[in-house]
Write a structure and sequence with these properties.
The protein is α+β, with helices and mostly antiparallel strands and 133 residues long. Helix content is 31%, strand content 28%. It has a 6-stranded mixed sheet, sandwiched between helices. The longest helix has 16 residues. InterPro entries: tRNA_endonuc-like_dom_sf. One of its GO terms (molecular function) is nucleic acid binding.
C-alpha cells in the first residue's frame, strides 16, 4: 500500500481530511490498521488533530502540519508528548466519557466498559490507555 508523501496540500484541513479518510497512508512502523476515533479532540488545554486506535488497542495521536507551517519540529514533538502524557494519566472511563464520547457518538459508535483497563467501540476495537505518538 502507498504511504503519504510530502506534497502540496492547499490547507492543513485538506490534509486532515485525507488522513482521516485513509489513515493507512500514514507511514507507521509495522503498518498497523487504524480506525480514526475523533478529530480535533480536546486533550488537556489543546486539541489533537486526530486520535485513532490500532487493531491492537493502542491509541495513536496524529498531529498534521504542512511543510510551510512555521512551527518547529521540536514544538510539534512537545505538543504530541503533552497529549500522550495527558492520555496516560486518564482512567479508561474518563477516556471514554470525558474525551471520546461525543466523537464516537458523532460517528454512530457506542462504547461499553469491558473491564478496568479497556473500552470497546462499536467498530470492534478495544482501546487501552497506552498510546503511540
Amino acid at each position: 500500500m502507498a504511504s503519504l508523501v510530502p506534497g502540496d496540500y492547499p490547507t492543513e484541513a485538506t490534509l486532515h481530511d485525507l488522513v482521516e479518510q485513509t489513515p493507512q497512508l500514514l507511514p507507521l512502523a509495522g503498518s498497523p490498521r487504524l480506525t480514526v476515533l475523533g478529530r480535533e479532540v480536546r486533550l488537556g488545554t489543546g486539541r489533537v488533530d486526530l486520535i485513532a486506535v490500532e487493531s491492537s488497542g493502542r491509541l495513536v495521536i496524529v498531529e498534521v502540519k504542512l511543510a510551510g507551517n512555521s512551527e518547529t519540529r521540536r514544538a510539534v514533538v512537545a505538543q504530541v508528548l503533552s497529549y500522550a502524557a495527558y492520555l496516560q494519566g486518564l482512567a479508561v472511563g474518563q477516556l471514554e466519557t470525558a474525551v471520546l464520547a461525543s466523537h464516537l457518538a458523532a460517528r454512530g459508535w457506542a462504547t461499553e466498559a469491558v473491564g478496568r483497563r479497556r473500552v470497546r467501540t462499536a467498530a470492534g476495537r478495544r482501546v487501552s490507555p497506552s498510546c503511540r505518538a
